[in-house]
Amino acid sequence: MTDNNEIPVKKRSRGIYLLPNLFTTAALFSGFYAITSAISGNFETAGMLIFISLVLDGLDGRVARLTNTQSDFGAEYDSMADMISFGAAPAVIMYLWSLESLGQAGLIAAFIHLAGGALRLARFNTQLGTEDKSYFQGLPSPAAAAILAGFVWVSEKYDYGLHEWTWFIAILTIATGLLMVSNFRYYSFKDINLRGKVPFVVMIGIMLGVAVLLSNPATVLCLFFFGYALSGPLFTILLLRRKRQDRVN
After folding, report:
1. Strands (E), the chain
2. Hey, what domains does the chain have and what are their CATH numbers?
3. In this predicted model, what pLDDT tens digit does every residue of 181-213 receive, in sequence order?
4. CA nearest neighbour of 105 among 174, 49, 165, 47
5. Please, which pLDDT band fits residue 162 given cuts at 50, 70 and 90?
6. For residues 185 and 239, is the Cβ–Cβ distance under 8 A?
7. Dihedral over Cα of 120, 125, 127, 133: its sign
8. Spatial contact of 149 and 50, defined as CB atoms under 8 Å apart
């Protein structure tokens, strides 16, 4: 006989939410496709696919929050997809595009970006409940990947031949890896309220921004993420100066 006072145990659901994980899967596929495109020598396509992964990666989290379908599985799956799309894919693309000619030095440069991406994601996952939501600690891996992908995309689209700047590309690849594991603070854009009201002039600015982006997406995106990468060190320096001034006063 069953005790009437016994509390029934609720069975744990073994299913996963479909919609946000579809976006994550699409982002993962774009990263994988970018690698295969680079192997085939289609570097412009490979660079564009990294940006597609970036867009899809941003959508999966927002879709999960809007539909209230966040889950631990989704968070872990997203990290695995990010490791491929923003860690492995850019490293492989840069190596095959230019760094291979440097031999072991090029291999090490590509690996530093890969390792930086892995460490950045691991640190982010362990700080989910404690970090300041307004800022990231270290350059986000999608932004680091976008810098390299944008550089490749611009070079291939306009036939600049930048792949011959092997040592500069090696330094750039190493820099993105180190920035990901740095303590520089980067604005997260998470506090932007898309449902709120904005002044009319803001809408005009957004329209102009979209027009400029569509007129030359490769160059605009490349410059934007370069600027974003520089914003972390600059913001951190200004923050430290302000703290020193407050201590003096």
Report:
1. 135-137, 185-187
2. 18-248 (1.20.120.1760)
3. 999 989 887 766 666 666 767 778 888 888 888
4. 174
5. confident
6. yes
7. positive
8. yes
